[in-house]
Structures are given as C-alpha cells and as structure tokens.
Amino acid sequence: MDVKKAIEERRSIRKYENREIPDDLLRGVIDSARLAPSGNNTQPSTYYVVRDEETKSKLRENKVFSQDFVYNAPAIIVCCTDPTAYEKHVKGWDSPNEDRAIRDLSIASSFLVLRATELGLGTCYVGWLKGEKIKEILGIPKENLVPYVITLGYPAENPKPTLRKSIDEVLL
User: Fold this and answer.
1) How far is CA 77 from CA 71, 159, 168, in A?
2) CATH code of residue 26
3) Rounded CA gap, 70 and 56, in Å?
4) 146 pLDDT more than 90
5) Model-level pTM?
6) What's the number of domains the chain is made of?
C-alpha cells in the first residue's frame, strides 16, 4: 500500500476484534513514529503501550477517558512528549517549547497511524482524557505532556469515509 492509499483508507476505529496484536507489528508502528522528523532533531516523543487488563482497569477506575471504547481496545498507545527536551527557546518567535513538542509528537503520531493502516490495523486519536492521572498511573515523568492517546487493534467495523472539505475550501 502506498502512502496516498493509506491516507485515503484510514478511518477512526472504535470497535476492535478481541485479538492480540503481535509484538513485531506493534514495534513496527512505533518504529515508524520514531523515524518522523522533529524540530532540531530533538525527538521529544515517547510511547507507553497499555495492553494488560490490570492497567486498563486502573485507567477505567480513575475515569481517565470519557469514551468507553478506549478501554476495550487491544492496545492503548499513550503519546507523550517532553517540552524540556529542546535545548533552547528563541525569544521573539511564536512557538514555545510546549507547542513545538506537541507539533513534533503529532507528526510522529501521523506516521504511526499511517503505518498501522498499511498493516491492516485500525486506530483512533483520543483527546478527551485526564493526562495527569494517566501519568500518575503509568509512572510517566512529570515534565512530559500527554495530549492524546491512540487506540490500536484489528478493526471490527468498517466505517464509511467522513465528509471532508473540498480542496477549494482549504487551499486559499
């Protein structure tokens, strides 16, 4: 599958088969994120993968996600970024290190999602979460930001494409 086809076929999946993801596929999607560009090659992104029911139960008990489907995904990829990883911030520019870190994480996560699509896996970005509580439960360093997670698994649904703006609406 080429990149354009992966972009066209990617869907937000909220129902997954009760099927384990092989370690090599999981490592492959994370490896794709690792290869993404980042500002000054800082590489501020890290990923924690939750697959065990005990940790999912702790997350559920603490109501860290507002959407129940997240807890049922075979894997929850907690996407982290460290704004302190950047050596400096140049005053006068509109991009504080927190913004830079989230931007770099987002680029890397897009690579991850497209690779997952190519491998026949489904994903969904989930931004309604309690990031500080996730950090506490998983032991994620306090300086890290957790802006979203990505669910991952074999799709148990095939949603229709969602309506998108036309090229003329976005190319101004």
Assistant:
1) 11, 21, 35
2) 3.40.109.10
3) 9
4) yes
5) 0.94
6) 1
